[in-house]
Fold this sequence. Notes:
Radius of gyration: 25 Å
Helix content: over 70%
Order of helices and strands: HHHHHHHHHHHHHHEE
Shape: globular
Distance between the termini: 42 Å
Number of strands: 2
Strand order of the largest sheet: 1-2
Largest sheet: 2 strands, antiparallel
Oligomer: single chain
Amino acid sequence: MNFFRLPFLLKLSLAVISIIGIGYIIKLGQSILAPFFLAFLMAMLFLPFATFLEKKLRLPRSFSTLLSVSVLLVGLSGLIYFFSSQISGFTQDIPQLTRQFNTVFENLQQWVSKTFNVKIKEQFEYLNQGLNKLLSSTGLILGFTFGIFSSGLGFLAFFILFFIFILNYRRILNRFIINVFNEKHKENVVAAVSEVRVMTKRYIIGLFIQIVIVSTLTTILLSVLSVKYAILLGVLTGLLNVIPYIGICISLLISCFIAFATGTVSDCIYTAIGYIIIHAIDGNIILPFVVGSKVKINALFSFIGIIIGEHLWGISGMLLCIPAIAIIKIVFERVEGLQPWGRLLGEDQIPDKKKRKYKISKNITLEEMD
């Protein structure tokens, strides 16, 4: 019996049941699937490096994998050391931040009372007490940090193991994906696998460049405004920016809070304005020229993906949902009958639209990517 000849309601029911079943499996296998998918993304990023070691330097597959893992661990160790040292200093400064925040908050109370002549002292005091409890709960913050750290160790261990296995056995995995389909579809499958590999690598590299640029711009902004922990907040903003829309809002709130606690209300306002400008630069210049439109997901499905990712995998789901949707989009665009779904996930393509170009110097010209 041909599936496509089934009644529409029956096909719809089967599709819904399949989606629910797949979602349940994904939710159930979070501790394995989340590090596996992240390892897959990083393996695609390190694939050119491993291939270079094997073809140009004639190193065995195991050696190239070992060197790739070593480079990855050095980068992760540097990132962990940076955040550990910065968070340690931030934790020690919590009492001072509390006192500074109280002083600024009291000045704000007096300004509001004089300017608007509104008796809201009781409400401000209640809010002030709540913020004091939040800032003074060092034990709670440390406990939360320890919980994240302990659960992150298991995630990291699985991630490293999967990374090694995927790089070391990538030829077997690639052959399996190709051979599992019917022979008549082999050419399309090979083309789809190749495109997924290339586009995934380009997408991940684009994200890293985006993180570096946004982190640099944010650090410069906060340094000019003399906001404390400018480097920490800048790097945190770059990493959270991977989560579309929500990430920049979270980092903006954190930075405004620190600016308000360590400076004045005007510092907080300038920080917010600077973040809005950086977000506009990111959306209109960095993304089109670094990531490109072929793997760009439209705002609707980005937001839906973030919600579903958070529900299934928590924070890791929010970070990994956009690359997952980008890969799904690439696959849909290569499979006959699923092209409309791939176009639905992407941005609206304007026919014969000219690519934007910016000439940086005589030999360097930036061109908008596909």
